Amino acid sequence: MGALIFYLLAALTIGSALIVALSRNIVYSAFSLLGTFMGVAGLYALLAADFVAVIQILVYVGGILVLIIFAVMLTHRIDDVAVSNRSVGRLPAALIVGAVGVIMSVGVVGARWAQKADVQAAPTTYGIGDAFLGPYILPFEFASVVLLVVLIGAVVVSRKEIREETGS
Amino acid sequence: MQPFIDRLIANGAFAGMPVEVVYALMMILFGVLVVFGFFLPIAGVTSWLERRVWARIQSRIGPNRVGPQGFLQWLADGIKLLLKEDIVPDAADRPLFLFAPYFVVWGIVATFVVIPFSSSLIIADMNVGILYLTAVTALVVVGVLMAGWASNNKWSLIGGIRSAAQIISYEIPASLALLPIVLLSGTLSTQGIIAAQGWAPWHWFAFHNPFTFIAAFMFYVAALAEGNRTPFDIPEAESELVAGFCTEYSGFRYLLFFMAEWGNLYVIGAVATLLFFGGWQVPAWTSNTVLLNISQFGVFFLKSYFWVFISMWVRATLPRVRVDQLMILCWKYLVPIGFMNLIGTAIWMVVWPQGNRVVQYGLVILTVAVLVQFSRRVRFHLRRARPELYYSPAI
Questions:
Q1: In this complex, which of B131, B141, B161 lies closest to A54 when CB atoms are compared?
Q2: Could A50 and B157 be called an inter-chain contact, meaning their C-beta atoms sit closer than 8 Å?
Q3: Which of A123, B46, B96, B187 is the most exposed place for a label (fewest CB within 10 A)?
Q4: Is A19 on the interface with B (CB under 8 A)?
Q5: B110 touches chain A (CB under 8 A)
Q6: Which domain holds residue A148?
Q7: What's the CATH code of the domain at A8?
Q8: Mind listing the pLDDT tens digit for each residue in B250-266?
Q9: How far apart are CA B14 and CA B5, in angstroms?
Q10: Most B CBs within 10 Å: which of A16, A28, A50, A54, as the mutation test of the B interface?
Q11: What whole-number distance in Å separates Cα of residue B178 and Cα of residue B188?
Q12: What is the rounded distance in angstroms from the CA atom of residue A57 to the CA atom of residue B138?
């Protein structure tokens, strides 16, 4: 049963990821990202990582996906963009993709997957909180400082534009 | 519901079936039960009641023809919309246009999974319940954006983008308002939050300290804005945008949008109740589990519906805010107040780990005094204004 659910979720994730990559209409690509994110959230839930699953939906669906859709929708005439960068060619692309594929396949096949006998559905939130404010407090605070810098940077960048427009 | 199903399995009700299949079937069964037995009727009755309350406030009569006091108006409206033609505009993006309403309804119905109707009536008591609640409302944004874009209509697109901007902005004050409660209760599970409160008002988290008192109202305002309700209904502003993102919709899909909106109203009330107003907590007046659960359901429903009722008043009395005012309210007022609440509650918990009884009683007395004064003023004005309009005690 667990395997069946896993394959369904994996099919959802990979299927929507294929649409994202192959669709000619970029709006469809943006919307089918939803399937990928939900599928990944489902996989997290299947692994008993409840907190991570919900945060995946909250951040990726509620934040990043909406941002991408916004960008796609607000771009003028996104359906027929004039491609300015010339493609390097199919042969180099195939070589690079093939090389990466071989490396990844070797990695996946060669890895010794640590297997737990049974996934225990226990609350993970306390553990994550303790880890954040205990052994991992430095990376945690560092990440928040980085986010703060990004936030202030965004404000500075957007304010500058307004000033230039009013000045000219 | 899991303990209940476990007991059924232990009693041999589903002998010979794999446990997972039983769980899956039961999940579907309870889902169908909640959607058709609770969500649909509550959305319908709310639509009727809102029109009646609204009419009353505006000295009109409102729908009063179908059934007693027009009570069955929502059924008539629903059947009418089901029978209408489902038009897809020629220029619309067909698959996305057809799919969008389901996303919106899905996002609202999914919240019912963690809403505790009583101490044992809950579909799934997740460890991350309240976080899940804020996360699945994100699906509504996707649906709204989809509807706005796929309609291929500039009013729809503006409405969809306004709505998405509004929901994303107001998610932050709403989450900030529920963080003090998570601090106080020490859990994210909805049942756990209710269990940390008591049946008496001074045990409710809204009256725990002044910061949570503010947070309760902040949450309500932010939730109304998230639900696109007047005074924050700029995505559907009919004077500017026809009907916003649902301009091009007709028939059943149009019905779905409005079902989601009115269903969401109950969700807002239920979440406010479970976070701040004690949830289903009742005094232990009987040892009969069934009776106790029925009374808990009743208390929870009344408390939740009280907030739905307040939102009807708000909708009938306040004018719509402008887009810039909406953003100013969110980012310049609600978000800083939210941070203040969070830090204030944390300090309060350090200073008074057991809570401060005097402050709790004081806040309850303050609230009661405000309510009494409010109802006295309302009565005074009702009597003086147009006595002949207010003869009938019905709505």
A1: B131
A2: no
A3: A123
A4: no
A5: no
A6: 124-168
A7: 1.20.120.1200
A8: 888 888 888 888 888 88
A9: 10
A10: A54
A11: 10
A12: 8
